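Fold this: Signal recognition particle receptor FtsY
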Amino acid sequence: QRLKEGLAKTKQGITGKVDELIKSYQKIDDDLFDELEEILITADIGVQTTMDIIDAIKDKVKSEKIKDPLAIKELLKEQLFEILNELSDDEKLKIEPSPAIILVVGVNGVGKTTSIGKIAHRLKGEGKKVLLAAGDTFRAAAIDQLQVWGKRAGVEVIHHQEGSDPAAVIYDAIQAARARNAEVLICDTAGRLHNKKNLMMELEKIFRVVEREYSNATREVLLVLDATTGQNAIQQAKIFNEAADITGLILTKLDGTAKGGVVIGISRELKVPVKFIGVGEQKEDLQEFDSKAFVNALFG
Ligand code: GDP
């Protein structure tokens, strides 16, 4: 239900418009496909993915001699299922065997801290012993905010002062995770993309520390992207993917955007699975990405 509410704008942007479109046509022709293409591109599904979807629907219409424009909606749904299916069997967060470390990367403002808080809350609820590391030492506010989330989730936060070396925070957090037998350590990192070189060097340094100090830990590197930025999110993802082997994506703020189609295009383009989607600001508003539930929410 929350998923459905959270995706309301995207649903309006895709299936709402498709409904209007197919009602206004008497027969299936090229104009209809052109308009359908525009709807999908506007919803940020991505150009290539849109083309592939349109081609597949055209083939089906031809081979099955479909005449009724109203059938297009169901064909679209089938195609979306197929595309999301071919990518992954909805890969879950990998935190077994323990200990596990989750490095969370992304540009400032995308919802990194919030997502970390939500994941901590979720894992704590599953009975896991969780520890947080305030690796974004560049902004005092980021450290404070992570502590607020730590309190909310009932999870300890390892932190240093503003301006200290992020890799040193992560080093300490790893020692603390060991000492306390934490099953999952979740690390925040800085996200100053305007200073790309420093950011990447900082991330690489953190990765070296993890490699050296915690090589036995199950590792996830999650990139957080703001879905409202649509295709820009894909550009950011490409940059981060150069510095770090991203193992999963978190798409935030789907509740505020009609560009939720980006979820469909992005994992296909990057070949990295979407693991979570954010559909609001509360601690419950981070959901495991379930492609079937996602498509059903758009069409339901
Ligand atoms: P960070 O700079 O990447 O750590 O970003 P924050 O975690 O501070 O988030 C920036 C803003 O986005 C905050 O106001 C969050 O409440 C908000 N936010 C994060 N995730 C979501 C989401 O899924 N939906 C909505 N509506 N807001 C979100």
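The chain has a mean pLDDT of 93. Residues 106, 108-114, 145, 252-253, 255-256, 278-281, 285 surround guanosine-5'-diphosphate (CB under 6 Å).
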